[in-house]
Specification:
Layout lengths: L3 E10 L5 E12 L2 E7 H7 L5 E11 L1 E7 L13 H14 L4 H17 L2 E8 L3 H14 L2 E8 L12 H15 L5 E3 L2 E2 L7 H14 L3 E5 L3 H10 L6 H7 L7 E5 L5 H10 L2 E4 L1 H6 L7 H6 L4 E4 L11 H18 L8 H8 L1 H6 L17 E5 L9 H11 L4 E6 L2 E5 L2
Parallel strand pairs: 1-4, 5-6, 6-7, 7-8, 7-9, 10-11, 11-12, 12-13
Antiparallel strand pairs: 1-2, 2-3, 4-14, 14-15, 15-16
Bound molecules: zinc ion.
The site of zinc ion has 5 residues, from strand 5.
Length: 423
Amino acid sequence: MAAALYRAMLVHSLDRHSVEWYADGALLVERGRILAYGDYATISQDFPGVPTMDWRDSIIIPGLVDIHAHVAQLSGVGSDRADLLDWLEQVIYPLERCCADDDVAASIADAFFQRALAAGTTTIAAFAPPFESATERCFEVADELGIRAVMGMTLMDMNAPAYLVADSNKLIAATERLATRWHNHRRLHYCITPRFAGSCSFTLLRRCGELASATGLPIQTHLAESRAELELIANLFPESSDYTDVYQRAGLLTDKTILAHCIHLSTTELERLSTASPAIAHCPASNTYLQSGIMPLVEYLDRWNLRVGLGTDIGAGYHASILDEARTAREHAKLRRMSQQTLRVPSHAEAFYLATLGGAIALSLGDEVGNFLPGKAADFVRIRRAPYRTITTTDDALAYVLYAASDSIYATMIEGIPVWQKP
Ligand SMILES: [Zn+2]
């Protein structure tokens, strides 16, 4: 593919606090990679003669990164229950059973990934259904649509209906086959996916840890989402000092592990997380939906220096937009501040970072995507600007993107190719 120059307002993160904004900017893309970015005047002079796409009515942001969602749960959106454990048993487990039919799994996967692309998500970490052939179909669909996905078959060997569990030997063998086929296949990555300690025996968890250590594959699971869950884990693993200890003893706390929620953690658990450096998937919409709690985001960033990204957590989360999650993360921090004035609210720059570069770093893909540094994949989103909106500063641009633009996504591009465009 020849080079193309996209002329538009540009905004992207360099780190958690630094954002670059170009009112009349340009993004130069060649063969799916970013060659240069900056002021239009400079870039067009440095690279004369490149065909220019005039997108001056739009803002370009890096592709959004969703670091936690469940493919099979899309059809259960909106069916909440009193808490996480009731919801799993009454709503989610019966629904995941439907994905034993490969065609059902494929059609749900198609809707799931299309929804993500329409929301500007170019990279997503997802739990595939708890069946090997359905997981195959999910990878095939993701591959066809061109989305960047980190995904794995959801593993359970106990404490769930018989139709969803299997013997740990079989689950590990299936994981190995799927990983051989899909890990690093084009834009796809395989992720070892034990659901959570509540539905995995210690044998299964330990074997997942051993496989991760032998292969270097990433791991995704859930940690400390609800208080009832903490009680369940304490009863199931009395030999462990706490929930985090279960994963640590199983070899699952690595710098390639994604832990969803992490709401109810003790200081000693946070100390261990801070050392082991897993990524935390913050899913604020899901957390209030299931009345699980509000994750102390600012403490995790400021005191514990944890790597945090954002997740929609479909289907406890009810929408596909990471911009909405970024906004909700700020709003939840405000709710906490109302009762504890010493707390601060994350800046627009931090919320935007979590939705883009922070998420990419959480998935160990920070060298590949997340911002516009030359050499990275040209994954970006075109957002149409409302004509009545005046944007004259970096913060204006961020405020608009975070609070007023999730319904103005016009095109989603991956490696310079449109993978979704507004009909
Ligand atoms: Zn989840």
